[in-house]
Amino acid sequence: MPRLHFILRLLITGGLSIYCWAWRVDMPRHIVALKGSCLTIPCSFDYYQNPPVRPNRVVWYQYQSRGYPLVYDDWHSKSVIDIFRGRTRVSTYGRSCTLEIYPVSYSHHRQKLYPWVDPENVGKGTYAFYDTTVTLEVVEGGPVCEGPVQCRHTCKSQPPTLSLNIPLKEHSLYHSTSTDGKTKTILTTVMFVERDQQTVQCSFTPLSITPTTEEFLEGVSTQVRCTASYTCAQNIPTLTWNYGNMVTSTHTVSSGKAQWTTTSTVKFISAARDHGKYLTCYARNMMSRGWSFSAPSSVTGMAGSCIVIPCSFTYTQSRPANPKVIWYLYQSKGYSPVYDSTQGVVSKYRSRTSLFGSVNEGNCSLKIEGLKKSHSQDKVYPWVDKDPITSFHTIGHSFYDKTTQIIVSDHAKEPELSVIGMVRVGAQSRVSCSVQHSYSTRHTMLSDVAWEQKVERVWTVSEDDQRVRCTVSYPGGQKATSEIELNAECPIAPLSITNTTEEFLEGVSTNVICTASYTCARNKPTLSWNYGNMVTTTQTTRSGNAQWTTTSTMKFISAATDNGKFLTCYAHFTGAQMRKDASIPLRVKRNMMSRGWSFSAPSSVTGMAGSCVVIPCSFTYTQSRPANPKVIWYLYQSKGYSPVYDSTQGVVSKYRSRTSLFGSVNEGNCSLKIEGLEKSHSQDKVYPWVDKDPITSFHTIGHSFYDKTTQIIVSDHAKEPELSIIGVVRVGAQSRVSCSVQHSCISAPPRLTLSGSLDKTALDTQCCLMWLGAESRASLDCPYEDITMIEKPGNLTEGMAKYVACSVTYKCKKNLPDIVWNFGNMQNQIETKKMSKDTYQTVSNLTFIGSLSDDRKALTCTAVFKDGETSDSVALQITILQADVPFRVSALSRSCVVIPCTYENPQDLLLTRGIWTKQGDMNSYVYHNGRSEILDHFKDRTRLLGDLHNGDCSLEINDIKPFDNGPFCFIAQKGDTGYRFNNSCAFVLMKASPDKPVMTKIVPEADAGSVARVSCSVTHTCSTHPPKFAWSIAPLTNEVTQTALSRSVWETTSNISFTVPAGDGLQNVTCTAIFWRDKQESEIGHFIVKGSLVHQMLRSAPIVAPVTSFALVAVIIAVVLGFIFYKNRRKAEDSQGPPPRPEKRRSLFERLNRNKEAGERPPRPEKRRSFWQRLSSRREEGVYRGKRENQITVLLQTHSHENHAALRPRMSAEVRDNSGETASCK
Description:
Domain Ig-like: 206-300, 491-585, 783-877
Protein name: Ig-like domain-containing protein
Pfam families: V-set
Region (Disordered): 1199-1226
Keywords: Membrane, Transmembrane, Transmembrane helix
Structural class: mainly beta
C-alpha cells in the first residue's frame, strides 16, 4: 500500500507539473570549474506544447540586465564576447543544451550563463529562459579527490589521469556523471601489498599457544609459547598472560612478505591449586580498542572567533554507560590533553574548549573558542575508551593519522552576493548575501565543518540604485565586503492607444490618446502621429515611485477616405535609444448629413384613439435622384431598426396592416398614414429612410438624425374647438360666429355643429365637435388643458432626491390654478409664465424623496381651477441599494473571520456611517463607530475593514465565539437618513478545528545533502490574520503567498527549500499550520533518501540474498562430497599396501582409525587395548576466544610426584588452533 500511495502521488505530481509548465530547462544553478581545465555544464530541456521550430538550435547568453551578450552561437560566432570566443561548444543531441568551455580562465569566475532554445521562434512569453541560470566558480589546484583512486571533476570530455605508486594489474578506468555537473572518475586495479605505507587493510590471525608438555608438574618450570601473526608491522601487539608473576620474554620476526610474528614465552611454574584452571594469553594494540571515531582531517576558523570539530564515535561491542571523551594534542611523545573534564589541559587551550553535543548520543565534537594564531597547524584527536590511552600500545600506529588539523586565518572570506532574478526599476527585486563560517547554532549547516549564514532582502528598485554592497564582520574584528553593479533595467511598456469610440464619425472630432509608460525619467519619449495635421497635446505625469506616463491626445477628425487605414502613434525614447509604435484600425462610417438627401417632417403629430393620423413628409436629393426611390419608415429604438412601413418585408406587429404611404413618392412625398390608432402607439417615434443603400451601411451612434423623428401622440380627450364672434355684437344686428378645430385625419374629419340663441341681455352660443368616438363642447369662457407631468420620477432609490415637474396651460390670467401633490410634505416650487396672448403656463417642481414603503404608490399632481380641476399620475418604482455579501461564510472558533461586503455607491451618495446589526433587530449593533452603541458581547472584537466611500463595507470579527452565527446585516447612514441594502446579510458557520494543510511538490526521492523543495498550503477565512507555518526541518528559503479562492475563503502557501538530511530510506517532513490564536493542524510528507552504499545494498538485498544463499549451499555440498571421496580413496590405498610390521609403531591416525586389515595381524595381547580405553587417554581441548582480545587456553593437569611415573605412558598434550589442525606430543 505505501508503494501504491507513492506511485499515485508521483503520477499526480507529474500531472500537475505537466499541466503547469509547458517548458522546462534542467541544469545546475552553481558549478565549480578548474582553472586551465575544461568545464561541462549539463543541460537538458523539455516541453509539452509550443514546440520549437529548430530544436537543435541552442544559443547560450551571459546574464545581463540589458542586452543579450553571446556566449555561444554557431550562427554568429564572431559576435560571441571575447572571454568566451573560440572556447565554447554545445551538444544538442536528444533535447540537450549541454555547454562545454575549454580552457577555463579566471575571467569566467562568477559569470552567470543561461541557454535559449530556438531564440528566433521561441519567445520569452513561452518560457523565460533567463530565469534559469548557472553561476561559474573558478578555482585553482587539482580535482576533488575522495581517496587515492577516486576523483570528482567537471570536465567529462578530458578527465584527469589517475595513477598509483604501486604496480597495477588488470586495472580499469570508468566515469559516472551526476546531476550537479560533476563527473566521478574511478580507477580499479588488482595489487599485491608489499609495504605497510600504503593505505590497505591489515589483517590478524588467531593467537596460538604451544606448550612443551601436555601436563604440568607442580613446582616444575615449563615453557609455554603464545604466537600472534599479522600482516602490518605497525600493528605489533603487546602480549600478556593472566599469570603476570611469571618470567616472560617476547620477540618479533618477519617470516616473509607482509607476514609478521610476535612470540611471548612464559616460564610457567604450576601449583596444585592451578589444576583445572586456564592459562590465557592476551594480545592488545590500538586496533583492538573496540571503538572507532570519525572526524574531518582539517577545519578552518577565523582568529578571535570559535570553531567546532565535528566528531562521532561508535562501539563495536556494548558501549559503556557513561563514556568519557578526552581530546589530545598530537605530539611525537606523550599525551597532552586539550580537553579533559577531570584534569588540566594545555595552557593555550585552557578555558577555551568544551564538548559540543551529547556524548550519550555518540557525539564527541569539540568546540574551541577564542581562536589564536598559536592554535594554527595544531593536530588534535579524541579518546573515548574506558581505559586510559597509556594502557594501549601505540608505537607506529595509524591512529595518529586520523588527527584533525586546526587552521586559523586572519583574512575574512568575502561573502557571496547575488541578485535573484532580473533587476528592473519599479519592480521588487531580491538580493541574497551568504557567507560560510565554522560555527553556528542558528544557521544552515552545509557540511560537517561549515555553516552558512544567509541574508535576503527585498526592495523596490529605484532609478538611483546603482550598486549593492554586503559586508560580513567577525567577532575578531575581521571584515570583508562584496559589491556588485546592479545595472537596473528600465522597463518600457508597449504603447497603448485608447479612443472614446470603436467607430469614427465622418467629420466629427474624436479624442484619441496614446500612452507611453516607463520607469526611468531619463527615458522620457517624444510622441508623434502619422496624421501630423491634427491638433495634439502632450502631458507627462508621475504616477508612483518609479512609474512615469507620457500621453499624447489627438483631436482626430476622420474623412470617408480614412476607412480601412491605420492610426499610428510613434514613441522615440532618447535615453534608451529605442523606438516603439502602436496602431489601431480606422472604421469610419459616413455621416448621415452627407447621405445625399434630406427630408422634412413634424416633430410630433396628435391623433384621436380610434381615428387615423397622417405624418406629412417630403424629401429632396441634393444630387440626382434615383429612378424609383424606395421609402421605408422605422420605429426609433436605441438599438436596431424595426420598420413600421416597408413594402417588401414585415413590420412591427402593432403597425401591421395599419400603415401606408400618403401621396406620390415620385413627387418627393414620403407622408405616412396610420389608421386605427391605439393607445399603444402613443409616444412612439418614427422616421423615414429614402436612400438607395440600406440604413445599416451608415453610422448612427449619437447622430442628430434621430432628433428629426416624429413622435405620435394618441389622445382619448377630444380637443375643444376654437369658437369666436366676428365683428361687434349689437342687438338687432346680424352677427357672425366661427367654430374651428384642428385634426390629423383628412380622410375622416370631425363633424362640427353650432347651436345657441341671441337676445338683448345675454350671449349663449356653443359649438359641439363630434369625433369618431369623442365629443367636446366649447363655450366662450376661460378654458384649460390637461395637466401633464413633464418630468417623471422614473426608477427611484430609497432616500435619494429627484426632481419631478407638472405643467398646465390655460386661458385667462385670472384663471391662475393651484397645483397640489398627494405628497404634501415635499418641497414644492411653482412658476407661472405667459406663453402668448391670453395663454399662460404654470409649472410645479417637486423635490421628491421616496422610501421603500412608497413603492407602487401613485404620485399625483392636480391643477385646481375655479371651475374644475385636472390631474396626472404615475406609479412609483422605489428600490433599495444593492449590496454584495456572501450568504454564508465559514469561521474557525476562537480565531477570526472576515465577511466580505461591497455595495453600490452612487457618486452623489457619500455615506457617513457603516453599521452591522443582527438580522431582525436593527438596534442590536454588532459594529458601530460609536463604541458605546455596540453590544457588550461584541465590543472590541469587531472592526470595519473597507472604505465606505469606495463601496467597501467588509467586517472583521475577532475571537469569534461558537454561537456567533448571526445572521449579521449591513446598513448605513448619511446624516440622520438611514439606508438599507439588498443581499446584505451573512450567516456564519462554525468549525471546531481548522482545515488540514495540503503538502505538494514534494520529491519522491532525493540525494542526501541535495536541495529539495516542498510546498504546503491551507485554506482559511481570516485574511487579516493568515496562518503561519512551522516546518520540522530548517528551511533554506521560505516564500509565503496568499491567494483569494473565493469572496470569503483564502489560501496561504509556504514554499520552502531545504537540505536533504543524511541517512537512507524513508524520511518525513512535517508542515504545521498555526492559525490565529494558536490552533494548529499538521500534514506529514514522505520522501526517500538515496545514494549511499547502505541504501544500494538494501535495494539489492532481494536479489543478492538468494544468490549468496545458493552459492553457500553449493560450497558446503562440494566440501562434503570431497571429504567422502578422500576417505574412500585413503581406505582403498591402505588395503592394497603391505601390512605394517608388528614391531613398527603406528601413527596416531592409524591408531584412532582401525582398519579391517588390522584384524589379520592382531597385536600382542598385553599391548592391545579396547577402543574406549584408547579414547579415555585423550584429553579434551578447551578453547576460549575473547570478544575483545585474541586469546587461547590450555587445560592444566597437575599430578603429584608419586603418580608421575605411573602415569607417564599415558601423558599427552593436544593443541588445536582455529584452523582445525591438531598436533600431538608424547
